[in-house]
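Q: Structure tokens for this one, please.
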Amino acid sequence: MASSAVTSSQSPLPARPNLAFRELRGQRSPGEFAAAVRRAAREIGERVSCDARYIGRVEAGEIRCPNYAYERVFLHMFPGRELTDLGFAPRSSVRGRSPRPAGENPPHRQHLGTDHEESDVRRRAFMTGGTATVAAVSLTPLTPLTALAAQTALGPDAAAAAGRPSRRAGTAEADLLEEAVRRIRLLDDRHGADGLYRYAAAPLQTAYALLDSGAAHPSAAGRLYAAAGELALSVGWLAHDSGRLDDARSHYAEALATARTAGDPALEAHAFCNTSFLARDAGRPHEALRAAQAGLRAAGPLGSPRLLSLLALREAGGRAGLGDRAACERALARARSLFAHGPAAADPEWMSFYGEAELEGLEAQCWSVLGDWARAARHARRAARLQDPHFARNTVLYTAELADDLARDGRPEEAAAAGHRVLDLLDEVRSARVHTMLSTTRRLLLPHRRTAQVAAFLDRHASLPRPAR
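A: Here is the predicted structure, written as tokens:
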């Protein structure tokens, strides 16, 4: 990936100076060190907008973990070291977490632990039982949240009748909701949506029970609404990616209503972004276009060119679905221009998936819809090549897109080779969308089954188990 859309993860805890990183700077000024970072980025084909302010934020501890582009640059500059050697937190401890206002309490570690032992448990669970098992293990620490909801959701009258005071939600509950979002997104990045959806629905029900209870303090209300809305979008995405489009639409609408209730334009932009993507996948291009345009209006004042870029791609998808090639090309050009502005402090945490690989992948989908298979295949190939390995599901998705485009472009052996690469990865990624795409590729390749490579792919595909729903 030649650049990255995600801003570096900011700390939800009181900042601690990153002394290890400061030591690596040595006698160079922050500006001189920033210039060295930019030079190192160019050496490996990355693009980062590093300046003295960014270096100052890292050293002050405001940035707990760099985005993927910066990570590659730093590891290139200091070979043989890991992020933790440079004073950063492990990525798994910050994925999907939004900055928490100063003065609020940190998460309760007895509920939110992400130490090595727990990670080992999750890895073993996935190897032995698949995505469903790892979801159950990974979301087990949310049990205290369900217990809290059982108290808060009763309401004052029922609580009094039960002989105990009613309890209102506060920062501890907000911490747990934010942790649910982080865990779901991390699991989806690595393994895809299938098997996760039914486990993620319970925390979502709890989230809205907590909202119904009211917040103990006004300072917690905004966090509770934002976290509940983001959780609804995460669960909606799991439904979307696993083929439950009606469920996804309901969850996205719920998130949009939450955003409107809370007056949260960032959440509203996210909800419209997901709604547009869903409408495109469901064959409703007019709705996809309208939702993308609404998202652009909500995102306009937020100061995130990358968010506007993603929404422009959603608009391009709607335009492609309507067969308007010229308008689609204009939207794609806008998306690339906005993307070139680079990361910004206002980039939302949920956009960590949106780097150059996603930009290429979404453009590939537009050309595919427009019937330009050769151009679609070029972009899909770039997407698969650029994708960070952490996002295993996206790597599989782009490669499946490539296989489909190659098959439609009359290149069956290349399509079969791409199909084999997808099958190689399906042991660790489970996505109904990918299975549907592969089934389409299979049908396209059937007339070429006398070709050895195509026959081998068709045989492997025929042996696949049906994806669980």
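A few notes: The two ends are 32 Å apart (CA to CA). Residues 42 and 48 are 9 Å apart (CA to CA).
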